[in-house]
Design brief:
five-stranded parallel beta sheet, about 450 residues, globular, 17 strands, alpha+beta, about 20% strand
Length: about 450
Amino acid sequence: GQGTPAAFGGIALKAWFGALEAGLSPVEVLARADALIGELFPEEAAATAFCALYDEYGGHLAYASAGHPAALVIGATGAVRALAAAGCALGAVGAEREQWTTVVAQDETLIAYTDGLCVDLDATLRGAGRGAAARLARRGSLHGVLTAALDLAGQAEPQRAFSDDISVLALRPRPQDDGAAAALTGLLALHIADDGSTRLAVGQALRELGMRTSSCPSAAEAPEAVLGERPDLVILDLALPDRPAAELFRELRERHPHLPVLLVVGHACDQAARRCCDLNPAGLLARPIDTRELARLAAAAVGSDPDRELVVLPRLGNEWFDLAVSAAPAAVLLLARYLQALGRQPLPAAVLDDVVRCVRELATNGFELAEGPVPDLAVRISTMFLADRVLIRVADERGGFAVRRLFAARGSLRGTGPERAGAGHAEQTLEERMTAVRSSRSGETILLVKSFPA
């Protein structure tokens, strides 16, 4: 739906789904949601939903649908199968739903989506031409799958882009042997947490992976512990009682810019995690800590350098706007829709003006380069809105392109024409309008930060 009632219903359903107890089957979850819709909206109202339970060891997926667009399973060769989408929408009195099972194999990717993306992703893939599904499934990361799906749908129907909320989920079985123990053997992990039993459990799990471990019970002791022990990895609980952990994380990042830090959070979207997003945490661990997830994230973290590349927005599990800047025919229309969506955000007018003008300038400069000296340009602009700041991440997706070239524009935020031309002019204007502008070491990623009073 549209308007305030639909927005309220969506927020209420998200909060309710997030609070459900474990152990329910997909059909049981949807049955409870039917009752909730009736309680929240006594008058006629409905919502669609796709609910699934995945067993990552057997590869089995149990699922049920409440009138939702059919989720797809795509193989590496491009073979596509649509999952069953029968069943009436949530809120129907006396609805009876069926539960199905399927297997998601090692070389397959599951994609579920809302109709804000498109009405029928299978048809969109067929319309994109031969090989589109295979190219989507072969993306190296699940984030790549998500962004490719967004780009594909936007280019297919640019007039619908950014006109509705979009949720897209991608799932791919992990390799059975991720080599975590070999990657971690002999390295030192420092765990900063006030709960003694948690420190003991995490320490034991890491030692079983071959790591050496140390722990620290408070934020006050943490800086000296890091300085003295020189760990290869820090695991920081954001619920420390003696000091805001976000402040501690910022201090550690300033003193030790190359040290990977895993954050332990209530969930990926809590306020403490959001305040740390521009510091590029190596990963987020939800409480209670799952030891298998700890092993996976720790192995990935020790091979990373947080100073090498800037913040990766998807790690927050938050909402953001993505725009692909390229020579694609629909790119200019997508920019117009993107700017309209940005303009609807509930921000102070001056802040919103700076954000919209900066995004417009960077994208327009990208289009000029794509039409001329860089025909294969592929840059992604991602914008995230937090309680006290806006983050704009500009990243090259092909490799080898210095995104600062987008700042040295023939146009500028103050006007266009030869009198405003000259390398570096747009960059200076951006720095004037933004609170901070940070560049990765490679020059292929730049983060713009616009802060404002919360």
